[in-house]
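Form 12-C: Joint structure prediction
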Amino acid sequence: MVVSVRSEECVCELTLDDCGGRTVSVSVPVSIPSTICPVELAHRLLHHHNIPVYLHQELSEKLRVYLRDRTEEHHRKQDQRAVDGLRDGKVSVAEVAAAWATKYSQVKKGVDEGCESEAVGSMYHSLVHSPAAANLLGLEHSFAAAISSLVAQREQALHDIHERQTQEMSQAVSQVGSGLTDDDVNKLAARHLEDAQLAEVQWDSTITGLRESQKREFHNFVTESFAGREVLTPVTPKDFVTTSSDMVMVEVAEPSQEESFTIHLGAQMKQMHNLRLLSAHGLQLCKYQAHQASDIPPQRIQTSMSLYSHNLNGLVLLVDDRINTYTGIKREFGRVCSKSTELHFPDVEDQLESVRNTVPQVVQWRRDHPPTQYDTDDSAQPAPSVPQHLKAGDFYMTRHSNLADVHVVFHMIVDDSLRSGDINSRHPVILGLRNVLKVACLGDITTLTIPLLLTNSMSEEMTMSWCQKRAELVYKCIKGFMMEMTSWGGAEMKNMQFLVPKGISEDLFQHLASMLPNIFRVSNPLVVKSS
Amino acid sequence: MYPASPKLGLAHLGASTFFASAHPSESCGSNGLPLTPNSIRIYGRARALQLINHPHLSCYVDIHRGKHERIRVIQEYYLLNLKGACNKYPEIRSHTGLAQIAHQVLQGLVYLNTFGTVTCNLSPQNILLDPHGQAKLYNYGLYYMTEAGSAVSFPLGIVRYTAPEVLLHGASQDGGGGSGGTATVTGNPAWDVWSLGMVLAEAVMGYQLFEKCEEVEGLVAEVLRTGLAAEPLKHLAKTHNSTQKLDAAPQELRDFLCTCLTPDPKDRPMPRSLLNHPLFRTMTISAPLNPILPHFPVIDPSLCLIDFAQYKAKLSEVENKGTVLPDYPLIPNSDSPLQANHTTEVIKSEQKDQLSERSMREVYHLWQLAGGNVEQELKKQKLIRTKPAILTLPSVMVVEGEVFGGDASHQQQLEATTIILPLHSLRSRLAHVAAHKYYPLITQRECGTDDLETSRLPLVIRERDVEYQLHRILTFQRLLQAYPYKADLVKSEARKDTPPFYRSLIWAALLGVDGAVADTYQQLDKETPTLTDRQIEVDIPRCHQYDELLSSPQGHAKFTRVLKAWVVSHPHLVYWQGLDSLCAPFLYLNFNNEALAYACLSRFIDKYLHKFFLRDNSAVIQEYLAKFSHMIAFHDPRLANHLHSIGFIPELYAIPWFLTMYTHVFPLQKIFLLWDTLLLGEASLPLCVAVALLRQLADRLLQFGFNECILLFSDMPDIDMERVVRDSVQVFCSTPPSVTFRQHQRPTSERDNNSHLPQSSQDLLMTGVSLAELKGEQCPQVSGADLLELSAQRRKSRRGLAKLLLVDVRTSEEFARGTLPEAMNMPADFTFTPEGSLAPGPNAELLTSYRGKIIAVIGSRNNWGQVTEFAEKLLVLEFPRVCTLHKGIEVFRASGALVVPS
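Section 2 - Result
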């Protein structure tokens, strides 16, 4: 709070009485306020200036008093200046008071933000680690099943409508001229559109309705059972078996290639980490694997139990700079999320909405903090304009309770520069990965999955050598970041998973797997293979 | 050890916690390295507070650093503070009572000023009263450990008692955050004088000051206005309608208050001058006001008298302590009645509670061993409320490192609450330990823990067993107090194990640190720039930086000082990289006592690394490595052959092992384990450790080629250190001393004076062997004396097979002319088949049956090639423990040990 940054240099001049009647005068520059040990200073002076040893005691005592007095004087002067300033009206009482008020207001915020979600969260966390967990998970599971069956029905119904309309339309088109006019066709098309939209809206509202009621019931269930009251599970796990056994969308997990390593990082203090290379689609981690509809999938239990813990799972998804769920991998992701109700956090759409609302802040911040120009000569060149959206290397995050193996998704913005073969460790996406690790470290995310090649799917130009080069870069950077992480004072990265697109050749996979132990120096390889 | 940490007495151990401020993301220091986290800065600084030992300052017992920049402080604590005491006891509320308190607080302040800091945090809540009515300042170290508040985001102190100039400074600067390293901690002692004045004025008037102002803004304004008034005391009285109460106070007290509340900082007196105020005329100082530097050993001539003075002061303190205040709240209300009863009982029968006679640091150490965990306690009592991580995540992070959304900031105000660590579980664990066990008699060798069952369990268990550790601590405390007189006993006790609590001092004792340690260190010039500064500066930020203490700025500063002191004081030696690692364990253990760290380092290098730090140390290191190769061949011929065949020589991996005595390769906790034993052993023990290390990795090494071996050692794999320690002792015991003889080892007094021995005995001793010869041979040489001694043991043992087989490789004619008794003749020319295997015969069978015992190859010094060749052939056949007789059979001629074989 009180930092006396200014220090003064001054020369300490002392005279010592030699017993023989001579006097020794010492002058030594010191900086005030000083924390020098006077005894040591005295020894140094004796040593360097050939002063008789028996003067040490006197010298050190005099130095001590001098340093103490000067330091005190220094503070006194500083304080007196401040008080005089107040008296003379350079600062007013009100100004100082206001400054303190803001100081306190800054630190006070965040003390009592014990929001509702936190309360529910802690209740949920204790419930899920209690005998009541079975009921709770059963409830969640049944909710999920209900929604996913509804979603499936919707898809089916919309598909049916589409089929029918196509048929009608082709019929109508074929009859154009022979009884129907273009106008009729247009009308038909308009009606079709209306029908389709109506159906969609109806389905959506049904689903939303169910979601809302599920959320309410869930919330109710958690609070009630936490209070120790017996709650009738609205839907018991058995209920939905009959209703939806044929409806549960089950993704058949395809056998994927996978290899694991245990490594130790650090010079003296070894920190153990698990590394895993797996070939799979990024979203496969989000989807539940094949399971019996009546059973609660094991990942679900695992994920729920660690949801409010200090061991979270994260996944990095590569997306473009538009924050929505309309195209590409974003669309697929949106679909996976909407298969069941998000019972703990806002729906994914709402989360994205809030991210979109944050973007102007980001833009403003960028404007206020232009990158430092080291080249002063280039001042003529105008600074690059600040884009109105997020740019490559930025990421936004969403939180999920209804995905299989993932709690947190990092949506990393990428651009086409990643396709080129010669990116280096200063590429924004690599820096972004470092930021991901930093957030993971500070946010207790201890399992993280990263696309190794920084691509969602393979394409023509990604040759064997391209892949090797890219993998080497990412491995090495991640290794560096992981070693750096220990100094950030957060959680350890326990499991680091590298993801490569599904369907890469066995050869390439093996090659990438063999690079890993070399780069991370696996001294004691533990190779587990499943394929 | 001295000054000892104060006794527990009737104190509680209180825990409080706060957050250090986080650095703005991606900020770097002036050197381009990332900034040290503030929590580490605080942690490093706060260590020094443990040195404070004064009856009116509550003791800092320990400090921890948690995840996410959390700091936890454990301090001596009492349930009653000045405010509560004033309400409860009229005698404290009275004017004389308050004067007494003021006097005690002032003493605390003066001590603190001499220590080099101020509290800046004085308030009625932070003046505790112990059951004897003595004032104890609490939380006074906050200003010091947070470097004048620069490492935290919250403002220190309570506004209503803070001096106006402090408020003015605070308003003009940004609190917390960036400014790294420039902050000073001296502060102005006059700030606390103002605060003391305010606290006392409040107590005299009986009103809470500025009660009506609830907002900070109003409070600040009130304080400033008081500061602006010509006579702040009158101003206060007027605004609080208590002029009468003030007038009722004696003149001296009023005068004292007036002096404290001098509005001009330049006129306000310092605490030390206030001690002479007439108000305190009748009172005496309760303890010396100068901090005493830690010293070891106790008989440090420069400090004896100070100790005596302190002892006298202590006596008087005991006398005037008097009785416990009636109805003093000794136990927190929250305790269940049962526990409460138990605790009161224990406390009432004070004589029986031995724990209160132990020092607080010791009690805290034991409490932790008994399962106590401060973080758990804080959580249990709701002082740490962690939000689930998933709710605090940000929503957007840009590539520049700035985050948006989320609630990751721990910016919180200082939580003033202190919780009390419950000691009843520790008390009940130790309830059955008899009182006399607390005072072990060391002169009569009654200090054993042998009667405890635990003493036979593995070290890991012993280190975690409360009762066992209690006994060890008690024993060692006594022994260390008697050091150096009881140095032998310290050593023999340390052979059992080293209690972590006293490790630093035990190590110092084992290394024979003695003399005026602190004085010697003070005389060394640690400031003047030298040529090695640059290298030291580069090395320190890479040395054991995973450790919080050693990575703190204080740690770096101390590192530099100790290293520079060593370099300056050893002009014939130089700084080699690795000295920093070597220094690390000593500095870690003696963080508050640089002088002892320096003394230990010097002694250690003298003993174990003699001549290693010469400017040209290649001869020393080469000899060491050659001896190491011999040791591998002696103990593990298979491995030696393999490493030899792939050309993986010790030069490639073992130099940092020996040069840093393994401190460069292992983390501190493992080094402690290793050195506990290393320090007990001879200077040759490190060689045995290296053999034990290789042995543990032998399985892998045998399969590996050159490249894999290099890789394996470039990043040392995880090692079972306990096994290494066990194995190395075993290796040491099974190695004849002359095998590890080195020309460059430190001459011990015995070996030094060989010259008085007759020629016949001198022949039998080991002498230096040239480096070329050492490197040319694969098997070690053994001295005649060792052989004679081993054969003597053979005669004593009854079993047929002895430890030793003597193989005379000269021709049978020479053999017949005279050899050692019980030597076996295997002429070199006929023993081996051309393929290198043993030619069959009775002698070959006998040789094979001795596989695993020491096989000494004896020959003539005139035909030395024959001897080494024979030994190496045995080595190829994977015979372990093959050695050759140093200087040939001729050495025995003078001593008459040779006989004609029958």
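Section 3 - Comments
The first strand of chain B starts at residue 12 and ends at 19. The first helix of chain B runs from residue 38 to 46.
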